[in-house]
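Demo today. Your pick:
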Amino acid sequence: MNQVFNKIKKNVFGYKDNKKIYVFRLINSNGNYVELTNYGAAVKSIVVPDKFGNKENVALGYPTFLGYESDPCYIGSTVGPFANRIANAKFKIGHNTYYLDKNDGANNNHSGSAGFNTKVFDFLIDDDSIIFTLKSPHCEGGFPGNLEAKVIYKWSDENKLNIEYFATTDLLTPVNFTNHTYFNLTAGKEQIHNHKLDIASNTVLECHSDDIPTGATSFIGNLKSTNLAIIKMIIRGEYNKYFIFNSDRKKESPACTLYDDVSGRTLNIYTTYPGLQLYTGQFLRSKHKGTKNRTYKPFDGLCLECQYYPDSPNHSHFPNTLLKPSEIYNETITYAFDVES
């Protein structure tokens, strides 16, 4: 039976490690809603209207918990303690070398066994917000420090999903959170090839073939209102690139805008992070193929992962991602949905 807390409904979704997994539905005054789950502090669905008023889900997700348990693609998840790749699954802090799980060839991706995507978060419902919390113990997956993470989701009447991240630690440790929602503004009627994208960036990180940064950057020019197929040519066929936001970008301006001409839907993204990883889902797949679960294939959705630079702990000239015990990690991402006529 649903429990109603102001504009939030909550029901049981499944069980893991003797803990209940819930789905929370945050409904605004217009009847548009977002669904979240405390498994991976993940976004399950985002239901917003198109230019004709049709309300449809524009985020990939699974209808049953079994889909999330067997998901290999981080669908909708909060990613941490460190988003993206770390070369050779190791890094140094001072004289100490820390060894991580090798879950992406020789490298670590999205934190391996320490990854938040498979963790059951505690939660608190606070009026129109959901507060997810998690304690990541010292040396889990190889990461130093007892890390306490907090992820706050808030859904507004203006169809804005605000995500705020906090973290504290008792040892110096790398921290880089992001959200891994796959978007499809056609609500799955088409794949993402005809979406158009603006990114407030003229520069990408150069990477090796395994998506590990070389440490250098490349100038790519203006991508304003550019079709994804054209972006593929501009960045030489790569669909998994980190874009560095232009230094003159104003914080109140979108860091990124995604368009779909047919539905008229737009997604403006605002963030405090210095860049984002564009990933167009070329490796999307679903392990569980039960009749009650959706299956996904390459290019069914794309990710716009606002975060710090990948492999930052191994590049001293990259923006610092080491969190000190005396500091509080605090970053935000806002997904703002609208329609154009």
